[in-house]
């Protein structure tokens, strides 16, 4: 679960949550979290977390971090709800060596329903972004939007700034660039 307040953003790794409580967690619901700060492959997260729903509401606006790609400053916004604008879809290589706009799984070994990986570029640098199927499965708009991408498309994206041995944004929205 990704959470954010005015002071920062937090990834709550495998936080236990009943179906009943999950139904109460709409965007902006204020919660109090107790757990342990941990790090895994660069990702700072809260583990063994529990939560209580509290009064209050806060919805973070997507922070445009496009200009921070490739800089040391980007990690300072880890786990935040972010935007990337004006990115160009670049080719990935499938298992047969063909140029494709996305892959199922990081190595192309998957199928519909698995995570989607796709490359985008800005100013001559290429970055890999992900649609995590546990966050946005194959029935979601973002999953379908990535499956419809073409190499060379210009896109704007939103998602959460996850870190795994470097930046690995978990994308929740893909649209044609404005």
The counted number of beta strands is: 13
The radius of gyration computed from the alpha-carbon positions, rounded to a whole number of angstroms, is: 17 Å
Q: Helicity level, as a percent range?
A: under 10%
Class inferred from helices and paired strands: mainly beta
Largest sheet: 7 strands, mixed
Sequence of secondary-structure elements? EEHEEEEEEEEEHEE
Average pLDDT level: 94
Q: Note the gap between the termini.
A: 29 Å
Percent range for β-strand residues = over 45%
Can I get a quick summary?
The chain is mainly beta.
How would you describe this protein?
7% of the residues lie in helices and 46% in strands. The strands form 4 sheets. Strands 5, 6, 9, 10, 11, 12 and 13 form a 7-stranded mixed sheet that branches. It has a two-stranded antiparallel ribbon with strand order 1-2. The chain has a two-stranded antiparallel ribbon with strand order 3-4. 26% of the residues are buried. It is built from 2 helices and 13 strands. The mean pLDDT is 94. It is mostly beta strands and 178 residues long. The chain has helices at residues 19-24, 141-147; strands at 2-5, 8-11, 29-40, 43-57, 63-64, 81-90, 92-93, 99-100, 103-104, 116-122, 125-131, 154-160, 170-176.
Structural descriptors:
single chain; mainly beta; 2 helices; 7% helix; 46% strand
